[in-house]
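ASSEMBLY PREDICTION REQUEST
Request ID: AP-0331
Submitted by: J.K., bench scientist
Number of chains: six
Total residues: 844
Priority: normal
Notes: Please return the full assembly, not individual chains.
Input sequences:
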Amino acid sequence: MTTEQRVRRAAVKLFADKGFHGTGIRDLAQEAGISSASLYHYMGTKEELLSGIMRECLDRLLLGARRATGGVADPRQRLVSLVALHVLAHALQPAETRVVDNEVHALSAATRRQIVALRDEYEQLWSAAIDDGIRRGGFTTPEPAVTRLALLEMCSGVARWYSPRGPVELDRLAGHYTGLALRMLGSADHECPAGLDTARKVLSDVWGKTL
Amino acid sequence: MTTEQRVRRAAVKLFADKGFHGTGIRDLAQEAGISSASLYHYMGTKEELLSGIMRECLDRLLLGARRATGGVADPRQRLVSLVALHVLAHALQPAETRVVDNEVHALSAATRRQIVALRDEYEQLWSAAIDDGIRRGGFTTPEPAVTRLALLEMCSGVARWYSPRGPVELDRLAGHYTGLALRMLGSADHECPAGLDTARKVLSDVWGKTL
Amino acid sequence: MTTEQRVRRAAVKLFADKGFHGTGIRDLAQEAGISSASLYHYMGTKEELLSGIMRECLDRLLLGARRATGGVADPRQRLVSLVALHVLAHALQPAETRVVDNEVHALSAATRRQIVALRDEYEQLWSAAIDDGIRRGGFTTPEPAVTRLALLEMCSGVARWYSPRGPVELDRLAGHYTGLALRMLGSADHECPAGLDTARKVLSDVWGKTL
Amino acid sequence: MTTEQRVRRAAVKLFADKGFHGTGIRDLAQEAGISSASLYHYMGTKEELLSGIMRECLDRLLLGARRATGGVADPRQRLVSLVALHVLAHALQPAETRVVDNEVHALSAATRRQIVALRDEYEQLWSAAIDDGIRRGGFTTPEPAVTRLALLEMCSGVARWYSPRGPVELDRLAGHYTGLALRMLGSADHECPAGLDTARKVLSDVWGKTL
DNA sequence: AATGAATGAGGATTCATTCAT
DNA sequence: CATGAATGAATCCTCATTCAT
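STATUS: Completed
Returned structure:
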């Protein structure tokens, strides 16, 4: 593992645990195993380190979501893939995703705009799947916008509590959440193996992780 | 409004917006409209200010949840009341609840234990309702513990996006979320007016707010 | 003497002796007799301290020069007053003026523009006196612009070597320099008591110093 | 051009523009077009780089002044040569001479002594010419010591404003300044072609520059 | 010869907190 | 009650310099 990776990893861990402002440059250095001056060989500003982490995480999520939904006609399948991918990403990389979810306020205005734009683009894929599903996929829900937010928050929450050492396996977790999502959307059928398969494949391609 | 309230309010706002570590004592003073030295007439430590906010918020939530569920036999009604109350509290006091949800890491170990204990006690009421509901209320869900967490995260998420200036009214919001919850729990019926009524009443009694 | 004055004085001394970049915030604090944190009760940035010193010094010089030349018809007298005032100011406040002369490079672009504008305005008074003197005051010099610069550098140099503990008294010093200036400008007469008197008066009015 | 020369040149430029303490080792490296580590193949300490520049510049000035005055009986001619040489050196090498004039404070005590000794030796030649000129060269000035300082500051100032892109040619500039000097010293005749010629010759011999 | 990597010391500035007034 | 003044400790970051490669 390169030193740069060690720095990145230290930052992800500490930013997730103690927050950006709660993490000192000395904490980062100690966690990375180098001096605080050496830190600056591998990063720009502390804030650039943060935004880099966020961008990478969101880029990957967006790429995965696009791969999982691109060319898929069935909105139910798209939605299931999105949910599964989101849940798996948050369960596998809880630190990264918590940083993305919680530390936006620490960004400068300019960078914040970029990050929020990425997130909006990502959520747009959810909106499309939900709206399509209502039109022609058997979804029934008043206030689809509210339901979308409820879904997203529910799935993102996984990063706040999931532990690989717990009793629930990842595959089962994803299946459970897709079931919840389909129920929330009033779908008659609560399963969609195709969507789950797609998510597994994308997870392997984009994150390099196999369940 | 007393100065103490002004300080409390300033802290809630800033801790919610910029995080505990991102908020300086001078920021607090400016927002409260007094000098940073005067601040210390109305608070102990900065951390005590934080824990006070959290405790009060959680105390109220716990009190409300107890009142809403105490003596209620039907687990479906209890669950609906809990969801509605949680959603309403988070929509009405988004700043307070975001502080509770996001700034636990800033607490000292001792205080954190107390706060987490309160939260656990609160979540215990949810667990009870769900477990009872599975046993004898028509709930069907594998992994009830996961479902509980999904529910809580979904409902807490309201504080992150709800705006009173948006198109959705509070009463409708609560109804929507209780519906989502009942769907997630596989309940045959997706409504429970009694549970909503209880929540409204408790909200008035404990929070002093009427919809 | 107020603490703010002590800070200002410390800065003037150290900036003059060791340069802006050669002076640390801790040096300033020590010289002012307070802690480096307390320093920030009495100043903004270190650079603002610098620009403040420069502005005040240049403001006074400009004010003095205007008072000494305003309404004076004879360009010879004006020039003599300017030289005398400049020399006296630099002899009496060598530290301040050396800061003005040597530390412009340490200013930010925006502030530098303001300071240079003040200096240009000041030098404009010299140009006017010299040009007028050539036209109708008996001055003869090729390249009046060069002569102006030579005069200014010669007079400013006083701040680099004059010591009140040396053998030359201030009044005599001013007289000597006005003589040199008139010679440089080819003036037939090398004295101009009126100009010197004006300078003495302005020095008393604007600087509050009497020879 | 060797790398060492490039380093030297970079240092001269940056020390002159931003001061010794305002110039970082990284600035030097960038300006020289090498890495900051490589810098240390061509220099000792940053301070040694500074003192080297000063010494070389002063050595050359001293050597030139000696050649220009050695064996010249007429103090008027000696003075004119000194003025011309000084002005030309400062106009041709404004950066070097500004470093010599402005950065003495950045030297360590020991090195400073050496540099100041060189400068004193150099100024001694001026003193001698002036004093001799008073005794038997037609110079008249009260306070010859003050006049010497005035002359030196006036001539050194050239480095602060002269631009080869300006309207005044070097030869003319030197002539103008020798004229000013002779006027300041009360010399009846304001020209001395022999002194100027000597200066030109020495400039060619010692600096390798032809006007 | 050249340089990435490394760092202890120090740069300016802000921190939360206390206290005399 | 209110606050200017004060500060030790900490903030992020850059410094000049060394060294293994």
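REVIEWER COMMENTS: The interface with chain D takes residues 17-22, 102, 105-106, 142-143, 146-147, 149-154, 156-158, 160-161, 168, 172-173, 176-177, 180, 183-184, 186 of chain C (CB under 8 Å).
SIGN-OFF: pending second reviewer
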